[in-house]
Amino acid sequence: MEPIKIAIDGPAGAGKSTIAQELAKRLKYTYIDTGAMYRGITYEVIKRGIDINDQTAIIELAKKININFVKGDLYIDDVLIKSEIRSNDVSQRVSYIARIPEIREIMVNAQRKIAINQNVVMDGRDIGTNVLVDAQLKLFLTATVEERSRRRYQELKEKSVITSLKEIEEDIKKRDKMDEERSCAPLVMAKDAIKIDTTEKTIEEIIQQIIYLLGERIN
Which interval of the chain is the signal sequence (predicted)? Predict the structure, then answer.
């Protein structure tokens, strides 16, 4: 039987990772957080002191390091990476790195390879339009800028990261613009994707809606 692929796209803070992770758990599928892969490269760029504008050095780094997932956890060169990739420094720089065509090519090849022989739930910015164009179910999660900013603020506050709601809102608007306007695999909803506004929905409501939609597609 052909492996089931669920592609979840959407802007920052729309709930992609939370929903994808819980959905994979419920379905016993492999969860692949593609955003974490780009954040992982960004984290390594910052840690190694590489200039964010030095694309050649960034591409060479991406070719050398090994990014992998083990039971949903991100590993870079066999080192477990967790909250480090969620820092504000990484969040402010990841869109600059993700828009480099060569970086996206390296990451997309790795992502497709992961999905070849197993059922997956994969979330990111261009999964339905570029990475898994043959996915049986494509979703586009969205929410208002205000709600996405509030969620991010709460997340950082719980991790004792000091920032302001206004600063986060401006950062999200900037990231949206960069993601939507980049020349390589911009953030757009796939023509055959289903849009879900998560602003006023609970996680359980969204999960149940997706499971229902999946049943319609594969049964």
Answer: none
